[in-house]
Amino acid sequence: MDRTRPLTLLLAGALAAGGLLALTPAAARAADTELARNGGFEAGLDGWTCTAGSGAVVPSPVHGGTKALQATPAGSDNAQCSQTVTVKPNSTYTLSGWVRGSYVYLGASGTGTTDVSTWTASAPDWQKLGTTFTTGASTTSVTIYTHGWYGTPAYQADDLSLYGPGGDPVQTPATPTGLTAGSPTSTSVPLTWSAVPGATSYKVYRGGALVATVTGTSYTATGLAPSTSYGFQVSAANSAGESAKSAAVSATTTSGGGGGGGGLPAHALVGYLHASFANGSGYTRMADVPDSWDVIDLAFGEPTSVTSGDIRFTLCPATECPNVESPADFKAAIKAKQAAGKKVLISIGGQNGQVQLATTAARDTFVSSVSKIIDEYGLDGLDIDFEGHSLSLQTGDTDFRNPTTPVIVNLISAVKTLKAKYGPNFVLTMAPETFFVQLGHQYYGSGPWGGQDPRAGAYLPVIHALRDDLTLLHVQDYNSGSIMGLDNQYHSMGGADFHIAMTDMLLTGFPVAGNTDRFFPALRPDQIAIGLPASTQAGNGHTTPTEVNKALDCLTKKQNCGTYTTHGTWPALRGLMTWSINWDRYNQGEFSRNFDAYTWN
């Protein structure tokens, strides 16, 4: 994901953007005024917005005063910090500032004529940059900015200024009217309101707390609890400030089981059963699965070919698993588990089961073949465990709320069809890897410039589209690289901190690829289980029982949180998932015994 470019390309781009050399600002005319707000960053980041949380104010090094901006590029983010300034049409302005670092840019956009920028390839100490521009005939505001370059270290900026004729003052927009709640579902409420002249964004409040900032006049609140009343308000905002909140509107979500819980206990233990293969943990017969397990995922249903959509499931052959039961005994044992209140699902995919529903024919075959497995074994539902290259986003598919990639769209359609066929008690779970979910906070698909891994965040549109049908999401917090949390720090697997940070993201929501206009809404706590390996042999990132309990304490009781501060407390967190039941038995049941002994309240 290295976004560096050859120096020749950088030079060419800079020449096209307004020149390489720092320009000395012309003497300001008598009528000119300083228009940049908090250009010395003495008031922190007041007036400035930095992409992906990349900016911070530091006491050293500074050019003037006691503070300066420091911003750190990461991956596909170039650490741009900007502010919008009111200007006059057909007027000339001088932009200048002091910077330190490699490949630091200063520029202005939205000028109405030719947008400008200037930059330095290397400034080991403070270097002044400057440029000028003339606004267009109808231009009343411009955006000034500074940014670094992809893959480079942090840069510093200080004493940024924009000199020129001051524009007519922007007025704070009026309070929105016409706020209306549409028809709720069990977990969502659609909202609409009337546009406000001069507003550039709208802030949505639920119960008095800010939950979203949008640019349009509609928003759907999701992740809500069934049969619950919620109050909403909206305010309008622009560069001058925020209006008062609108009159409140109330809406009550419908009942509906919250995505098909199927009678799960308040806190559930989910495990995968190696039913179609053997490995070092040995084969476990269905009848021998301990009572601790509330959801049993049969691993795995696999396709006849990657793109066929034709899913098959068979029990482990006797040559591989000498103690395998007969199909009749297996089915009888499933019925006995269900009679005891357990749920048994078919898990599709796994490490070796690549599934790409690239055509509608593959989609339809998927539905019919999965239905056949569910019907034959009398199962309670479906677990989506697509890994590897099953899901990836096509170039240009950048909005998780409106996916266009066929393998994504067809999977969503197939699962909705299965849900409709089997009804409200159909149990739907998903077990993506962190690469496909939480990594979406930083990267989404191939990125705005291309070159990123197109699988990054690729589960997000699936989860979002199916959130009202989803019983459980248990992301695999193992076999993972380090992932950035909502604290903009990287977290590594194996300890409580990783599970706390990764789960907090799901229960709080997050901007996708740092774009606050594309915010992935929080899921309900009863929809979330934490995925862990049952033993050191089961996968990288094994977490000791002590650390598992710390993570549960922090998320459900706000205790033993360590250095990470969560954005809430969720006593209704559903539970834990593990790979696998077989490996837990191999490890003398350490994982399940710890779960059984944990005190939730």
From TrEMBL:
EC number of this enzyme: 3.2.1.14
Any one Pfam family match given in the protein's UniProt record, by short name: fn3
InterPro entries, alphabetized: CenC_carb-bd, Chitinase_II/V-like_cat, FN3_dom, FN3_sf, Galactose-bd-like_sf, GH, Glyco_hydro18_cat, Glyco_hydro_18_chit_AS
Biased composition range(s): Polar residues: 172-186
Residue ranges annotated for the Fibronectin type-III domain, each copy included: 175-256
UniProt keyword terms in alphabetical order: Carbohydrate metabolism, Glycosidase, Hydrolase, Polysaccharide degradation, Signal
Record's signal peptide: 1-30
Domain of life the protein comes from: Bacteria
Domain GH18, first and last residues per copy: 267-601
Any Gene Ontology biological process: polysaccharide catabolic process
GO MF annotations, alphabetized: chitin binding; endochitinase activity
Region named Disordered: 167-186
Enzyme class: hydrolase
Protein family per UniProt: Belongs to the glycosyl hydrolase 18 family. Chitinase class II subfamily.
Name this protein carries in UniProt: chitinase
